[in-house]
Design goal:
Blueprint: H1 6-18, E1 22-30, E2 33-41, H2 44-65, H3 73-79, E3 86-87, H4 90-105, H5 133-139, E4 148-151, E5 156-159, H6 172-186, E6 192-196, E7 199-203, E8 212-218, E9 221-231, E10 234-240, E11 245-248, E12 251-257, E13 264-266, E14 268-275, H7 278-291, H8 293-302, E15 307-312, E16 317-319
Antiparallel strand pairs: 1-2, 2-6, 3-5, 4-5, 6-7, 7-10, 8-9, 10-14, 11-12, 12-13, 14-15, 15-16
The structure holds adenosine-5'-diphosphate and magnesium ion.
Magnesium ion is lined by residues 170, 239, 282, 285-286.
Length: 328
């Protein structure tokens, strides 16, 4: 047992107020989106070290999963589709393995091989008529998570079909947020938020002891928050469909496309998912869009520690079983 003498106790009394913790924040662009890193630290120098650490981790992950960088492991897999399997790092192998499991959980609504879909839908207002059924069918011909072959022994990945591609657009930012958070936790950062354009993972509390709060955007009026919710340790991700959509024959089609059918998702304006990890929340938010509100809510209600808020195209709010919001 350590004995503290009285002068030490007095000294501690003086130190505590001098090193009162504060919140520090920095914005940075990575993965084609804005990231905001928030940390609680004793001073700006300490905060800088932490934030630099988080950014270097996000940069590292971007290099690993980027489909634009022809030298990334992901590009190597894509370049060898239909040709040969590619040995990859354990980290990428496991990420792909988890992504395939998510496809299983969502009956294929989530599928990283969506990336080989032909882009026949345009969401910039230029599209006036529906593509024909044949075009829609053939647009997804190369999509299918069952054709991503993992060889655990050799730690290799093989895309069976020529022209097949994988992409981490619906999971990468969440994964990066999780990884940056764990790295900061390992380095002793007591509280913070990694926010990847609305995909966020939080830990600890604000210096004043209050919980962090997240604002859920009102899809019918972007300048207004639909709800403000407290969050202490976990992830929250919103997938919205405010601007990118096309209206054809009176139906509003979202920019997220069902990889099984080639048709864009309909009926939903925004999905917010709460989960222990941002990677899971990110993937599920996109999936609920594709599954639609009924199937989506059912699936979320079956998953432990996962909750969701759906706002449909009429502005109506639907929530999973364990969520209560009073102000919307
Ligand atoms: P954002 O990143 O714009 O917030 P989402 O998290 O919903 O939006 O992800 C949309 C992105 O996910 C798309 O731009 C695309 O890269 C990818 N994606 C689209 N549909 C699917 C799908 N069914 N399964 C996996 N990834 C998808
Ligand atoms: Mg997503």
């Amino acid at each position: 047992m350590v004995k503290l003498n009285s002068s030490l106790i007095i000294l501690m009394f003086f130190i505590v107020p001098l090193t009162a913790q504060q919140t520090f924040q920095r914005n940075v662009k990575r993965m084609g989106s804005g990231f905001q890193i928030t940390v609680v630290a004793n001073d700006s120098l300490e905060a800088k070290t932490y934030i630099d650490l988080a950014i270097s981790e996000i940069t590292r992950i971007e290099k690993l999963i980027s489909s634009w960088d022809p030298k990334s492991e992901t590009s190597e897999i894509n370049q060898n589709a239909g040709i040969k399997s590619v040995r990859v790092s354990e980290e990428l192998f496991e990420l792909i393995d988890r992504a395939i499991k998510l496809s299983g959980i969502t009956d294929g609504a989530f599928d990283i091989s969506y990336a080989s879909m032909d882009k026949i839908w345009k969401f910039d207002g230029s599209m006036k008529t529906m593509p024909n059924t044949k075009e829609i069918e053939s647009s997804v011909a190369k999509v299918g998570f069952r054709n991503i072959i993992l060889d655990t022994k050799n730690r290799s990945v093989f895309l069976k079909k020529k022209g097949m591609k994988i992409g981490f657009g619906a999971i990468g930012k969440g994964y990066a947020a999780d990884m940056a958070k764990s790295l900061l936790l390992e380095n002793g950062v007591q509280a913070g938020i990694i926010n990847a354009s609305g995909d966020m993972n939080t830990w600890g509390r604000q210096p004043n002891g209050n919980e962090w709060t997240v604002a859920i955007t009102n899809p019918l009026n972007k300048t207004k928050a639909a709800a403000i919710l407290p969050i202490t340790n976990g992830a929250v991700v919103t997938s919205g469909n405010y601007e990118k959509f096309v209206r054809l024959n009176g139906i509003r089609y979202a920019h997220i496309i069902d990889p099984r059918t080639g048709y864009p998702a309909t009926g939903i304006l925004s999905v917010t998912v709460f989960a222990p990890k941002a990677e899971l929340a990110d993937a599920l938010a996109t999936s609920v869009f594709v599954m639609g509100k009924e199937t989506g809510l059912n699936r979320i209600n079956q998953l432990p520690q996962v909750e969701c808020i759906i706002i449909d195209e009429n502005g109506k709010v639907f929530t999973s079983h364990n969520i209560e919001i009073d102000r919307l």
